[in-house]
Amino acid sequence: MKRLISLNILLLLFIFNASAQLAKNNPCKFLGNITTSYNWQEYCDVSDCNLTYSDYWNQATCENATKWGSVHKGWGKFDWTNADRTYNYCKQHGIKFKFHALIWGSQHPSWIENLSAQDTKKAIVEWFDEVKRHYPDLEIIDVVNEAIYSGGDYHSPYKQTKIIQALGGQTNGYPNTQSYGWIAECFKMARERWPNAILIYNDYNTFQWQKTEFINLINGLKALNAPIDAAGCQSHDLNDMGGSQFKSALEEIHNKTQMPIYITEYDIAKNDDNQQAQRYKEQFPIMWEADYVAGVTLWGWIYGKTWTSGGNSGIVKNCQDRPAFTWLKQYMQTDAARNAKSPICGSTSSISVNLELSKESVEVGNEIKITATASVRNTKVKNIEIYAGNEQLSNCNSEKCETNYSPNQEGNITIKVVAYDTDGDKSEQTATLIACKAREPFTGTAITIPGVIETENFDKGCPGIASSDSDDKDEGDSNGYRNDNGGVDIVKGNGGYAIGYTEKGEWLEYTINVESAGNYSYNIVASSGSANSGFHLEDGTGKAITSNITVPQIENDWNTYSEIKGNLTTMLKEGEQIIRLVIDGAYCNVDKITLTCTDCTNGVEEVSALYQEKTFDVYSTLGTFIGTITVNHLNEINAALYDLTNHEGAYILRDTVSGKSQIRISKK
Fold first, then answer.
1. Burial class (CB in 10 A: 0-12, 13-18, 19+), 273
2. What letter does residue 391 receive in the DSSP assignment?
3. pLDDT (tens digit, 9 = 90+) per residue, 164-201?
4. What is the pLDDT of residues 13-68, one digit of tens each?
5. How far, in Å, are 429, 507, 508, 512 from residue 580 at the CA level?
6. Which residues participate in catalysis according to the annotation?
7. Burial class (CB in 10 A: 0-12, 13-18, 19+), 622
């Protein structure tokens, strides 16, 4: 960082905060609060006590009025009355306004709970677009609220809706990188609408019970190149946490995420005045003086009008300052408070850059696209550099830079982008690209069909190309049967190996060689101790060739395997091709798939075209002419033969145009 802040900007910030009494001596940090009643009517000033909000606080958050459920009244219907009351107050008094929150599993419109994933996505887009229309100049936004997964569920009731599915995710929990994808999508949608706003992920229990989950979530979003600017720690969970313990937790979160932190909802819910004051004295200086903390928002200040029990987190009671508030006013006048640094002023760059890879893995010799997009505040983008390892790939003098890259050797490659602004500040972001050799069958030879597909013998190749697992850790017990499994979990089972610990959306591909085209049946050996476990098969184009196959449940028993029989819904063509196994319901073990031909050609030349109208003369195997059939698709022949002959059996068909013949089976 080559500059702290220009004199003009410093003066403007000082003037901007001049009326905010508690933090007026520190132009780089804000000390904010929420509206004064725990209800939908959002007011700032406290008329009962003749208290003026702007005399104390220089940032405001609506406690409820900007939440989706309070604004969105149905398709195309919005009521901003209460939200505007706070927003306009902020504009009139030079106070920062933070929007809380775009997406939350609670306080969403109740009517979206009955929507499909597709319609839920439409409702989300409508909501984002409406907020953008109404508040185009938002500076700070809580984009997603309380989405940590812990103890078998999310922090808020996302599962009552299809919000997660609508945004491309699955309600399968953490930790795995793909589980954060729907949250990343929210941030990308927000960045499109507010390119200069500070985008925050906000959650509670970040300092004690779910600290690790919070860190994993933030880092997961960074790994997915989500445009997240800061981590929001609500800080409701500090009532009985000592200062040293709090300091250790705060530092751990920052050190492991390397993100600016906002203390978004701080309160100490204590009936005892001295106990509340003691917690303030122990904790507040730690957060305020941390140069990576951008600001602190107290979650209410009037006793009886906060969300805690009896409103006991309030620091003004009966219109008199409680000891905690008396101490806070005194502390904010100290040199330590006045000189505290912030990541939004003099501590970090005013430029940020987002890195996006078209693929997370690529075969050696193939290309991926690398896109870097920079955004700035109060300056301009000078240039963007893109690197693969130590090799510079591109240097662009614009806000967006794109280049193609083709790795020439296997391994993990660090892709780095560095963006500079015209003041000399810079921002970096990195991502790991997996380069691997071209996919091939596990044994080097395609699996012969008719035959058996052992599920653990999926093709070798890049994750995302030959297989896709929800994480990169092998949780199985195969003792290293595969060292190239990309996280696919292989277990011992049914006298050999099987795939296990499956999650919805995972898939595996197999290269097969079909010796004879025709209709096939399957016999699949699988087990599950859970309800609703299952999968289906697809061809290489992604078209399903089976319906969803449910694995019989034997409660809490994954060691007893069952046979599941059925027919493919589409005939297989002759030759080498791909079959994909896709998990639809988690926690099934799949051992093997046996494919048997029920109706295949047998040494006589096949019909060349499958999907056009054909007319055949039909003969018995002794050469006696029986009649003529016309079909639109090859798989209609069996039934058409039965309709003609009223018997099951083998017949010779001669194409009336080409004269070519084949043997087919008449089946009812």
1. middle
2. E
3. 988 887 665 555 555 788 999 999 999 999 988 999 99
4. 333 333 345 887 777 789 999 987 655 567 778 877 888 888 898 899 998 889 99
5. 34, 7, 6, 10
6. 146, 265
7. exposed
